[in-house]
Design brief:
The structure is a homotetramer.
Chain A lengths: L9 H17 L6 H8 L3 H7 L3 H25 L4 H14 L1 H19 L6 H22 L9 H18 L8 H14 L12
Helix pairs in contact in A: 1-2, 1-4, 1-6, 2-3, 4-5, 4-6, 4-7, 5-7, 5-9, 6-8, 7-8
The structure holds a DNA duplex (21 and 21 nucleotides).
Chain lengths: ~200, ~200, ~200, ~200
DNA sequence: GATGAATGAGAGTTCATTCAT
DNA sequence: TATGAATGAACTCTCATTCAT
């Protein structure tokens, strides 16, 4: 039974994890179906017992990630916290997602643009918009509520944040010197208060 | 005459620009030599009168960018300014580089990892290290000189910065609402002072 | 128990009928074992409990048809009727065979040539010769007995007849406007007396 | 330059002729692109310099035949001859078409049904209708004008004729004992006047 | 009898590259 | 410089078949 869903049970899940790793390190289009099959110890044709196509594999990988993270985003936004807490929660959730979906995030970041052009990946565009809405929303609310500086351009700020959030997955090593949580904390500290020392200059805005 | 270098004048330069645009929007490995030839209005075989190989094109594109930006970095570091000014100059130089090398930056960001595995692109690893040295250097100096917060992890901070710096090229549109200089200013403002309003909490560090 | 013969009873027969339908509408080589299994509601591997191979299925289908029709031809020829009656009986028998073997006839007509090249289908060549012998025989006898025009080339005439006889199965719809018997009658009428009206021109030959 | 047109000039034409021969003798789907390339003495990939796909080859082959024969049909119908002459001209034109398009006719006859299901071969359905219109038209006219027997069912009669007309190409050998013209004459003689000897029975209809 | 995972060969196609003209 | 024909390797995917469970 060919399965486009997440990587839960059995063989399918293992194969998907291997594929995700290869897509992430070599790129989607530079990864061949044979590479994946080799990694799984089977012949390339046998992969098609589990997945309808190479695209279907990427699909399953990305969908598992996006469904989870966007679900988490929805929960956070729905929780109706002060803007700054919502903001922190979104950033933390995004970085913690690396623990279960690191490869997917790398693929999303590296190949997302290109894949989104394919019919089967139309949902990537929707996902991009949902990310943006959540972030731009909380930034605007924070500005209105006086939590964030009035001079911010929400969309531009979102783009700066987005870049860092998803790029971390490129170098993050689980079990490495910094945990995802620690990375999130450091990033939030920099993002909220800046790297410069001393009293803020633009306090009055 | 096959040329692996950056090609300013004439046909070579035009072809290179077309190739850069295609590599940037479709990805290096998804761009075919025929795509480039089509864009140039010639046949794919004819490209080989200008360039020795597809890799040579990517090489010329990336080298032109890296030579220029790393030269600029060297100048800035050599100028011996206060850490904060050096810092601002590096960020600004990186973002202004988009004006002449947007496609190259996108390629560097998207395909750099993958290309760096190829023999002909060994210099990409060196470039990465030189970037890192410049940034980690100025961050450390800034901390020592009391300009930047003592709590920063320079390498981690560099990685956050790097992500944003090069990712901007993905969405930047020359002649669009924000100039590269404006983007640089906004980014620096956020990076240095944070997005949060009000007096700094961690002033004493 | 693998069975290469015609399969009347039970599952085998049902599967064979499904396979015959698919072979007939899509062609033998364009029909996959999976198509057949899907139609039967089982997995493709499970088909091999019933049949040794895809060829064995085609074999069973064609054999069932050929055994029956050639047996009928033998009876007709042995009955020792006047040439014209034999002739009519052969044509009618061939067209009535559609009622039980329509798909087999389509396969025989469409894929027979190609299949006959395979070892397992050597009998198709024999069958072709037996058809030809029966028809060429009755045509020659008819000419000798003065029933048929002396100007006929028996082999050529046989080829004209054969084409129509087996091609009817391509468009015949059981329960449609014309029964197989009616089609046979119309064909015989045209074949024997022609479509032109008025007195025969070549009466004296 | 990839060419979907007929098999006129140079290499393209040669390759097309080879492909046509293979499609005709082995069937379209049983003929591999490698078979064609082997026959042409090149590698399979090189075929794609001349043709966009295997389908494109079949397309060019069938189109060349259909354009020519349907053009001929149009001329004949437009010539406004007595029904019987039109009828003879159509049959003769169809059989003489074998001289330039024998393989195409075999492909049309064997694989036409199956190919017509593919998007790129939609025109096959139109062609089928144009053939039918021409023949059914002339049959009806002939009946009205008293040339053909009133008892004929034009569509059914057309189907009988069609079967023979296109099936001849399966066994016809150029330079063999009978020319296409001789075959046409014999077929017309049988078709118009029947194979039975002696006075017509159904003269009064 | 049926499943489901796997095989292994081969399908159509793509593509960077070469080279005689 | 450019063309156009060809190469050769690799690619995604298909499919008849096998077999342990």
């Amino acid at each position: 039974m060919r399965n486009g869903r997440a990587a839960e049970g059995g063989r399918q899940g293992e194969v998907l994890a291997l594929a995700a790793g290869l897509f992430a390190s070599n790129g989607y289009s530079a990864t061949t179906v044979r590479d994946i099959a080799d990694a799984a110890g089977i012949l390339s044709g046998s992969l098609y017992h589990h997945f309808a196509s190479k695209e279907a594999m990427a699909n399953a990988i990305l969908t598992a990630f996006l469904d989870e993270i966007l679900g988490r985003y929805d929960e956070i936004v729905a929780a109706d916290m002060p803007a700054r807490e919502t903001f922190e929660a979104l950033a933390t959730a995004s970085l913690l997602a690396m623990e279960r979906h690191q490869a997917a995030i790398v693929i999303y970041q590296n190949d997302g643009r290109h894949l989104a052009l394919l019919e089967n990946f139309a949902y990537l565009r929707d996902a991009g918009e949902r990310f943006e809405q959540a972030w731009v929303g909380v930034l605007q609310r924070g500005i209105e509520e006086g939590e964030f500086r009035r001079s911010l351009d929400p969309r531009l700020t979102y783009r700066f944040i987005r870049a860092t959030l998803w790029t971390v997955a490129r170098w993050y090593r689980p079990g490495g010197p910094q945990s995802a949580q620690e990375i999130a904390d450091q990033y939030l500290s920099i993002l909220l208060d800046g790297i410069a020392r001393g009293k803020k200059k633009k306090t009055k805005e």
